[in-house]
Amino acid sequence: MLSPNSVTRQLSDQISLAKAFVVIAKESNNLQFAWELSAQIRNSQVLLSSAATRRVPLTTRESDTAIRDMALLLFQGQQLHYDSATMIMKLKAKIQALEEQMSSVTEKSSKYGQIAAEEVPKGLYCIGIRLTTEWFRNLSLQRKIKERMQMEAKLKDNSLNHFCVFSDNIVATSVVINSTSISSKNPDRVVFHIVTDEINYAAMTAWFGTNQFKGVTVEVQKFEDFKWLNASYVPVLKQLQFRNPKYLSMLNHLRFYIPEVFPALKKIVFLDDDVVVQKDLSALFSIDLNGNVNGAVETCMETFHRYHKYLNYSHPLIREHFDPDACGWAFGMNVFDLVEWRKRNVTSIYHYWQEKNVDRTLWKLGTLPPGLLTFYGLTEPLDPTWHVLGLGYTNVDPHLIEKGAVLHFNGNSKPWLKIGMEKYKPLWEKFVDYSHPLLQQCNFH
């Protein structure tokens, strides 16, 4: 009973029961008791959050007062002799009504949020068109950049720090590279590998071929050139026509084929295009992953973001193979040991789960659920300050932002969109050169 896990579990169980009593108290118009319970629930949640943040289990000494105070309130609730059967019926009816209301609101919110998030700003579209035009018109530029790429020995030099970004957004990718170069102590040792699609290849190549980033080496490829990328090898290609393109674009799923994309590399840091780098990242390449393939920041604060949130545990395949309370982690800033990846044939694990999920019964959408399955037991937790999430959908602790090496604008409110969160936009915008002639011509602001 005195083990750290038991203390945490006891607090969690008390919170669950107290929440039920809050509803019952409100139904019975006992607002004072409901308020007292809610206040104690908050106190207990603060304790759990604090323990999760510092990654040290709760001790009986620091939790004793909270557990005792909550126990007294719960005992008081039991002495009120609520009619249990009636309350259960009321609760069920209330829960059903709330679920229907939440389902409707969530569906509308998701739909409108998605429409806004997928909007391509006119300025960004203009930049792509102008760069593409310049690329095809200027043959000497094409020749110069292609010659430089062919001669670039750095692209395969494993003594350097290699990063990859898979994106069709020129300005966002430019911010990732610019912020990395400014934050880097030795930018000449940084190599960025960009993979885009056929439509954006010319514009990306022209932009990164004509702009300098403090000595950072930049390579641009398009995934259509990868001969191994075909439906017979890549199961997700067969499913593209049936799914939401936001979640199933090939650029999104290339993260599961990094060893094939970069066959000469041994270690690489994967960055999403909606991040900003504000610290030197060279230390990531010397982190010991202890035989694991994926180095990532865990996201399981309290009970949130554990495996059961992302996967369907009513399916026997999921239930039999994965702990529902296993800690989730984030894509967006990941260190990959490609030697270990190839040795363990991790891509085949991804293929196995994709093929099992053809009917979408294991998970619905996205790349994180198959990532959690693919890298289960192969992920090394990183210090949380390496990757701070939430700047695209929620409020983030300013101290975390200040300490964070990589800030992630995950969520629909991207900083380049009108719906971006205003208070976080400056963190991204300071790495955009708005004085650049092309950005001014396209009125990008």
From TrEMBL:
Coiled-coil blocks: none
EC number, as in UniProt: 2.4.1.-
GO cellular component term of the entry, any: Golgi membrane
BP GO terms, sorted: cell wall organization
Matching InterPro entries: GAUT (IPR029993), Glyco_trans_8 (IPR002495), Nucleotide-diphossugar_trans (IPR029044)
Main location: Golgi
Name listed for the protein in its UniProt record: Hexosyltransferase
